[in-house]
Design goal:
140 residues; mainly alpha; 0% strand; rod-shaped
Length: 140
Protein backbone atom coordinates (compact mmCIF):
# COMPACT_ATOMS: atom_id res chain seq x y z
CA UNK A 1 0.00 0.00 0.00
CA UNK A 2 1.43 3.35 -1.06
CA UNK A 3 1.10 6.27 1.37
CA UNK A 4 0.71 9.75 -0.15
CA UNK A 5 3.79 11.96 0.23
CA UNK A 6 2.33 14.54 2.67
CA UNK A 7 1.30 11.81 5.13
CA UNK A 8 4.74 10.21 4.94
CA UNK A 9 6.37 13.60 5.53
CA UNK A 10 4.25 14.17 8.63
CA UNK A 11 5.07 10.68 9.90
CA UNK A 12 8.78 11.22 9.32
CA UNK A 13 8.67 14.60 11.06
CA UNK A 14 6.75 13.10 13.98
CA UNK A 15 9.11 10.12 14.22
CA UNK A 16 12.16 12.37 13.94
CA UNK A 17 11.46 14.04 17.27
CA UNK A 18 13.33 12.89 20.33
CA UNK A 19 11.04 11.14 22.87
CA UNK A 20 11.84 13.83 25.43
CA UNK A 21 10.76 16.52 22.95
CA UNK A 22 7.43 14.78 22.43
CA UNK A 23 6.86 14.37 26.18
CA UNK A 24 7.89 17.98 26.81
CA UNK A 25 5.47 19.26 24.17
CA UNK A 26 2.61 17.17 25.60
CA UNK A 27 3.32 18.46 29.11
CA UNK A 28 3.40 22.10 27.95
CA UNK A 29 0.22 21.68 25.89
CA UNK A 30 -1.62 20.29 28.92
CA UNK A 31 -0.92 23.31 31.16
CA UNK A 32 -2.77 26.58 30.39
CA UNK A 33 -0.17 28.76 32.14
CA UNK A 34 2.65 27.18 30.16
CA UNK A 35 0.76 27.68 26.89
CA UNK A 36 0.22 31.36 27.75
CA UNK A 37 3.89 31.80 28.68
CA UNK A 38 4.94 30.10 25.42
CA UNK A 39 2.66 32.36 23.37
CA UNK A 40 3.92 35.53 25.08
CA UNK A 41 7.54 34.44 24.77
CA UNK A 42 7.08 33.57 21.09
CA UNK A 43 5.47 36.95 20.37
CA UNK A 44 7.95 38.95 22.46
CA UNK A 45 10.82 37.30 20.61
CA UNK A 46 9.51 38.22 17.16
CA UNK A 47 10.18 41.09 14.81
CA UNK A 48 6.43 41.81 14.82
CA UNK A 49 6.82 42.74 18.48
CA UNK A 50 9.70 45.09 17.65
CA UNK A 51 7.83 46.77 14.77
CA UNK A 52 4.65 47.11 16.82
CA UNK A 53 6.52 48.77 19.67
CA UNK A 54 8.47 51.09 17.39
CA UNK A 55 5.20 52.19 15.77
CA UNK A 56 3.34 52.59 19.06
CA UNK A 57 6.15 54.57 20.68
CA UNK A 58 6.50 56.84 17.64
CA UNK A 59 2.72 57.38 17.58
CA UNK A 60 2.71 58.09 21.31
CA UNK A 61 5.51 60.63 21.12
CA UNK A 62 4.31 62.40 17.97
CA UNK A 63 0.52 62.38 18.32
CA UNK A 64 -0.86 61.65 21.78
CA UNK A 65 1.46 63.29 24.27
CA UNK A 66 2.97 66.76 24.36
CA UNK A 67 5.49 65.60 26.97
CA UNK A 68 5.67 61.79 26.49
CA UNK A 69 8.81 61.04 28.47
CA UNK A 70 7.55 60.55 32.06
CA UNK A 71 4.70 58.16 31.15
CA UNK A 72 6.61 56.52 28.34
CA UNK A 73 9.60 55.90 30.60
CA UNK A 74 7.32 54.33 33.22
CA UNK A 75 5.59 52.11 30.66
CA UNK A 76 8.83 51.01 29.01
CA UNK A 77 10.39 50.26 32.42
CA UNK A 78 7.41 48.15 33.49
CA UNK A 79 7.41 46.34 30.18
CA UNK A 80 11.13 45.63 30.53
CA UNK A 81 10.51 44.10 33.95
CA UNK A 82 7.83 41.78 32.58
CA UNK A 83 9.83 40.88 29.48
CA UNK A 84 12.85 39.98 31.58
CA UNK A 85 10.59 37.68 33.62
CA UNK A 86 9.42 36.03 30.39
CA UNK A 87 13.04 35.62 29.27
CA UNK A 88 13.84 33.88 32.57
CA UNK A 89 10.76 31.67 32.18
CA UNK A 90 12.03 30.69 28.73
CA UNK A 91 15.52 29.99 30.06
CA UNK A 92 14.15 27.87 32.90
CA UNK A 93 11.99 25.96 30.44
CA UNK A 94 15.00 25.34 28.18
CA UNK A 95 17.15 24.21 31.12
CA UNK A 96 14.40 21.84 32.28
CA UNK A 97 14.10 20.41 28.79
CA UNK A 98 17.87 19.96 28.41
CA UNK A 99 18.03 18.17 31.76
CA UNK A 100 15.19 15.81 30.79
CA UNK A 101 16.83 15.09 27.44
CA UNK A 102 20.23 14.48 29.05
CA UNK A 103 18.66 12.10 31.59
CA UNK A 104 16.84 10.23 28.83
CA UNK A 105 19.97 10.00 26.68
CA UNK A 106 22.02 8.75 29.64
CA UNK A 107 19.53 5.95 30.33
CA UNK A 108 19.45 5.02 26.63
CA UNK A 109 23.25 4.98 26.38
CA UNK A 110 23.60 2.89 29.52
CA UNK A 111 21.09 0.37 28.15
CA UNK A 112 22.95 0.26 24.83
CA UNK A 113 26.26 -0.26 26.63
CA UNK A 114 24.81 -3.17 28.62
CA UNK A 115 23.36 -4.71 25.47
CA UNK A 116 26.67 -4.35 23.62
CA UNK A 117 28.54 -5.88 26.56
CA UNK A 118 26.16 -8.85 26.62
CA UNK A 119 26.51 -9.30 22.85
CA UNK A 120 30.30 -9.16 23.08
CA UNK A 121 30.33 -11.79 25.85
CA UNK A 122 27.98 -14.03 23.86
CA UNK A 123 30.15 -13.65 20.73
CA UNK A 124 33.22 -14.54 22.79
CA UNK A 125 31.46 -17.59 24.26
CA UNK A 126 30.31 -18.78 20.81
CA UNK A 127 33.75 -18.17 19.31
CA UNK A 128 35.38 -20.21 22.11
CA UNK A 129 32.82 -22.98 21.61
CA UNK A 130 33.44 -23.08 17.83
CA UNK A 131 37.18 -23.06 18.44
CA UNK A 132 36.89 -26.01 20.85
CA UNK A 133 34.81 -28.00 18.36
CA UNK A 134 37.19 -27.29 15.44
CA UNK A 135 40.48 -27.64 17.27
CA UNK A 136 39.98 -30.64 19.52
CA UNK A 137 43.34 -31.35 21.08
CA UNK A 138 46.34 -29.32 20.02
CA UNK A 139 49.44 -31.43 19.32
CA UNK A 140 52.06 -31.53 22.05
Amino acid sequence: MRVPAPSRDREVRRAAHHPVVVAHQRERAADVQLRIADAITAFAGSMTFVYLHAGLFALWMLVFEADPWPKLTLIVSLEAIFLSAFVMIGQNRQAEFQKAKADHDFVEQEQELKTNTELTREIHRLTAEIHRSVVRDPPR
